[in-house]
Amino acid sequence: MSAQQPVVLVVDDDPDILETMSLMLRKRGLRVLTAAGPDEAMAVCRERGAEINVLVADLSLPGDLNGDLARRVVAEQPHVKVVFATGVPRNIALATGLVDPSAPYLLKPVDADTLASVVHGLVPARTGSGRQL
Q1: 4-aspartylphosphate-modified residues are where (predicted)?
Q2: Quick check: 31 and 9 in contact, CB under 8 A?
């Protein structure tokens, strides 16, 4: 029986980046949901939160310039892991308290294999029945 693939919610306000990251992840066997901003992301989380394993979020989203989206998603869906994929340099994000120092952090442009590897590394392998290996 084949393993169930992780579900990733990708959030970015740039439609080209959103499409590119989604395509990169799908080509590597992941299931992808997308949102163009924080409000849309929260709506997706409320509707399909139990399915989502990983949130890939930009830190500079209009209406969410303080990285609050990740905190809101995890507050509603504690099982969701977070990866930041952003143009904001990590040292600035850390110095201003936007991210936890242990959070996976990728600077754009993001390498497809690196992104997929980070996502896969955050999600325990599951059997087709949904049991953890």
Answers
A1: 58
A2: no
Please, what's the b/e burial string for 57-87 (b: 16 or more CB within 10 A of its CB; e: otherwise)? Answer: bbbbbeebeebebbeebeeebeebbbbbbbe
For the chain, domains (ranges, CATH) are 7-117 (3.40.50.2300)
pTM, two decimals, is: 0.89
Over range 28-38, report the average pLDDT. Answer: 96
Asked whether residue 111 carries a pLDDT value surpassing 60, the answer given is yes
**9 in Cβ contact with 34 (< 8 Å):** yes
Q: Tell me how far CA of residue 9 lies from CA of 1, 44, 51, 104, 119, in angstroms.
A: 25, 8, 10, 15, 11
Token couple for 95: 């110095």
